[in-house]
Amino acid sequence: MTLLEVKNLKVEFVTVSGSVKAIDGVSFTVNRGEVVGVVGESGSGKTTLGLAILKILPLNGRIVSGEIIFDGRDLVKLSEEDMTKVRGKEISMIFQDPMTSLNPTMRIVDHVAEALIVHYRLSKEEARSKAIEALTAVGIPENRVLDYPHQLSGGMRQRVMIAISYALKPKLLIADEPTTALDVIVQDQILDLLKELRNRQKTSILFITHDLSVVADIADRVIIMYAGKIMEIGSVEQIYYSTLHPYTQGLLKSIPKIGSNSDLYTIPGNPPDMLNPPPGCRFHPRCPFAEEKCRKENPPLVEVSEGHYVACWRCVK
Amino acid sequence: MSVILSVENLKKYFPVEQTFLDRLLGRRKEYVKAVDGVSFEIKRGETLALVGESGCGKTTTGRLVVRLLKPTGGKIVFDGIDITFTKESELRKWFRRKAQIIFQDPYASLNPKMKIGEAIEDPLLIHFGDKLSKKERKEEVLKIMSKVGLVPPEYFYDRYPHELSGGQRQRAVIARALVLRPEFIVADEPTSSLDVSIRAQILKLLQTLKEEFKLTFLFITHDLATAYYIADRIAVMYLGRIVEVGDAKKVILNPAHIYTRALFSAVPLPDPKLNRSRSKIKIRSEPPNPINIPSGCRFHPRCPYAEERCRRQNPPLIKIDEKHFTACWLYS
Lengths: 317, 332
What we know:
The structure holds two protein chains of two kinds.
Chain A: E1 2-15, E2 18-31, E3 35-39, H1 46-53, E4 61-70, E5 73-74, H2 80-86, E6 91-94, H3 108-120, H4 124-137, H5 154-168, E7 172-176, H6 184-201, E8 204-209, H7 212-218, E9 221-226, E10 229-235, H8 236-241, H9 246-253, H10 292-296, E11 302-305, E12 308-310
Chain B: E1 3-15, H1 20-24, E2 31-43, E3 47-51, H2 58-65, E4 73-78, E5 81-82, H3 88-98, E6 99-102, H4 116-128, H5 134-147, H6 153-157, H7 166-178, E7 184-188, H8 196-213, E8 216-221, H9 224-230, E9 233-238, E10 241-247, H10 248-253, H11 258-266, H12 272-277, H13 308-312, E11 318-321, E12 324-326
């Protein structure tokens, strides 16, 4: 069942050097209880996508057009007042650096309790006991709940952020590079925790990352973004084993693999300057298969097999 | 192959800053034992990867061996000469030319007010001064720029750091490190801040340059797959000590130390089926505070196989085979 449907979303930033189309016509769905990975490099628009869904874009950014249908309502048309009720309670978000989301003068238990008081109107005592429950559920020992954020490690701080989601039981969690700043062992623990959250509460997760390995571990489906557009969508199996887009293929071949002695492939060139994105297919200047048509016309995202979408002229019959 | 760098029982303790109250109460000064008894050798032409999580002391080790930091104890021998406590003025005469370091963030390593070409030329100016003419220096810089892929070099010579992409900046930093034709380079996470599609470019560039300039690398990384790709040998660090060292293939494909095995289990692989089917050694806790280091084997509080002995005695590096050593009592 579809929980979120994004239709032809366009987001633009106004900068001193001109306007940047950070997201340029993106459409996809997220089902209930599903983990969807959004993979892209810097400038791909993956972070903007998360911010746009919650309508918390920076002041110079705006949704130009498109629809964000969440649980039957179009968030684009929702008033700021109604959005406040959606944020946190129905859709919550965690970021790469949890310290920027935590108040340094507040005990961690109060972060969780405050969210419960605001969204569920619980009494202070009730909220506190529920908060302690949530914190222990995500692996924070009870004797640490009165700590301040600076007393915790990075992994523990990220657990606090997840505890807030755990307590509020949102339908969708947007996780923007939640493990990028963490060491691998702690990353593994946080990924396990997110999987548990999904299994127990059927929370859908939009997992935004640059790391194809992390996505291979946690996601059911994957969206590959490049320069504000979707290049490929598919199940993890389709993306990793029946890769179609040259960009996805290049990415997969350019990461060192443990136990493999084959040489690394390198995608030539650099990610595009978003002020002047290339015409036609955005990836064509770096694509080994680029033809005349790719330089002129942007390929549509077409379904090549069930659930597997690709935007590449080589796949258009 | 001759040994270019040998490190013996290297130590670096950083004092923890005391508050006025601490001093008033006469509290004992505490130390973070960032590197606490590390020994290894690197042979000429070899790449040794130093792998570990944040706080394990890998970066401190890298800075010590190029003497950006003064060791607390131990011995560093470079090219047969003891440089452990050598003065900077003496190091500048020869060592600074032979050993260079590349950092993770190329933007922080470049002066924003200096043109790329000038930045690369700077080491030549410092070490050769008037011995090289302006023209000779520029020729040398342009030559090295094309070697690292900043082509056309004449174009990049006049650019400022902010005009370059992350990958190009890292190329500039590599060029600056190479312009003095060093023999030994410490590369501290040189690809970690770059985009996935750029990382492979820089890794391959370093491989090519290693061949061409006959370089020796100490490659510091937290990424086991990168270490496996680039290194001949790998040393795994945990809380200031080396817990396992050996041939890259052996350490990665047949890890011995429980910590290495846990680390390997936690690394996600770019293969969904393999990821979800392999057996894992899971560690629940987080690394202890490096001020209060556990007794015995430093890993014992997190080790699922810890015994009485591990709590009391610190294991030495035990030989598993010719080219593979680990500091774990399970192998004694």
